[in-house]
């Protein structure tokens, strides 16, 4: 592993790796409290993260301990998402209230109360106009943030864990434990259903929208969006904790409890770099916009 400094009891530990030989890392701590959800903003220089019992924090990668900005009071926030353009933040509370904020000014734009009980997932459409919120009852609610109302809901089943839109938001995808359903993004009419898949821990749609990237136990694997055929398994020695696709869809980043992150070639499923080693389990990672570095 490269030389780096660890801070005592640090839960979020940032490494920025150069993805061409020699594989070089810069490392820093971003705090000592338990970290929950983490996202890299589109500028590639700031992390948005949640900590147990505290507000959301926008953390500068250049100054991880000094460049932290708290974004409002987020006590009771269950899930949150950054819009694909990096301009807006949407959150859902334990009570099911949706809140939209401008990420530059950190100002609240609007609030939609009581959309769903016991939310389990949240996703924004690419144009920031729609949000889908999943409840523990197996129902996904599609909400218009411009019209300030729920448009429709669809039922995946009690195993619903995730939902997201296609790039043009014409399609809505809901993900269960071993199945994926496709719905019309405007009406909620069912279009397709894939069953008999391996146990799914998370699912991503590839940029060409022809395949899903599934995270399942100790590997990531591509799944044909039409036939359900699996291809190019990418295995670790232990459980895979996170997957990420590069913006051009050519590379996959996986992180694992085997204390490493790996970058894979999408077309072949073969490793594109040597393992990016860490001193502890790696739980999250992302590509920067130029695809030349990963942050983890």
Structure in words:
By secondary structure, the chain is mainly β. The chain is 0% helix and 49% strand. The protein has strands spanning 13-18, 25-29, 35-40, 46-51, 56-60, 68-71, 77-82, 88-93, 98-102, 108-112, 119-124, 130-135, 139-144, 149-155, 162-165, 171-175, 180-184, 190-194, 202-205, 211-216, 219-224, 230-235, 240-245, 251-256, 260-265, 276-277, 286-287, 293-295. Strand 17 (180-184) and strand 18 (190-194) form a beta hairpin. The radius of gyration is 19 Å and the shape is globular. Mean pLDDT is 82; it is low at 1-32.
Helix-strand layout with pairing:
Elements: E1 13-18, E2 25-29, E3 35-40, E4 46-51, E5 56-60, E6 68-71, E7 77-82, E8 88-93, E9 98-102, E10 108-112, E11 119-124, E12 130-135, E13 139-144, E14 149-155, E15 162-165, E16 171-175, E17 180-184, E18 190-194, E19 202-205, E20 211-216, E21 219-224, E22 230-235, E23 240-245, E24 251-256, E25 260-265, E26 276-277, E27 286-287, E28 293-295
Tell me the span between the first and last alpha carbons: 14 Å
Per DSSP E runs of 2 or more residues, the count of β-strands stands at 28
Write down the secondary-structure element order: EEEEEEEEEEEEEEEEEEEEEEEEEEEE
Major β-sheet, in short? 4 strands, antiparallel
Overall pLDDT confidence: 82
Trace the largest sheet across and list its strands. 2-1-28-27
Strand content: over 45%
Low-pLDDT stretches: 1-32
- The radius of gyration is 19 Å
Tell me the structural class: mainly beta
Instruction: Specify the helix fraction band.
Output: under 10%
Number of helices: 0
């Amino acid at each position: 592993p490269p030389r780096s400094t660890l801070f005592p009891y640090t839960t979020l530990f940032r490494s920025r790796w150069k993805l061409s030989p020699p594989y070089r890392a810069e490392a820093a701590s971003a705090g000592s409290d338990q970290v929950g959800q983490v996202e890299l903003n589109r500028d590639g220089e700031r992390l948005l993260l949640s900590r147990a019992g505290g507000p959301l924090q926008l953390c500068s990668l250049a100054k991880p301990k000094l460049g932290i900005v708290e974004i409002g009071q987020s006590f009771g926030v269950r899930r949150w998402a950054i819009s694909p353009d990096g301009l807006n933040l949407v959150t859902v509370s334990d009570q099911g209230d949706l809140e939209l904020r401008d990420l530059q000014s950190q100002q609240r734009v609007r609030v939609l109360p009581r959309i769903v009980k016991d939310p389990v997932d949240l996703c924004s459409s690419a144009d920031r106009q729609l949000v889908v919120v999943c409840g523990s009852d197996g129902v996904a609610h599609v909400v218009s943030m411009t019209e300030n109302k729920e448009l429709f809901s669809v039922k995946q089943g009690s195993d619903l864990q995730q939902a997201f839109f296609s790039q043009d938001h014409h399609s809505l995808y809901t993900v269960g434990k071993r199945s994926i359903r496709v719905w019309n993004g405007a009406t909620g009419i069912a279009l397709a259903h894939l069953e008999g898949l391996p146990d799914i821990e998370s699912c991503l749609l590839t940029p060409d929208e022809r395949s899903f990237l599934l995270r399942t136990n100790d590997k990531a694997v591509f799944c044909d969006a039409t036939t359900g055929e699996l291809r190019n398994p990418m295995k670790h020695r232990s459980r895979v904790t996170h997957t990420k696709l590069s913006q051009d869809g050519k590379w996959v980043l996986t992180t694992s409890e085997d204390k490493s992150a790996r970058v894979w070639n999408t077309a072949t499923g073969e490793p594109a770099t040597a393992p990016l080693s860490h001193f502890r389990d790696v739980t999250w990672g992302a590509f920067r916009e130029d695809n030349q570095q990963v942050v983890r």
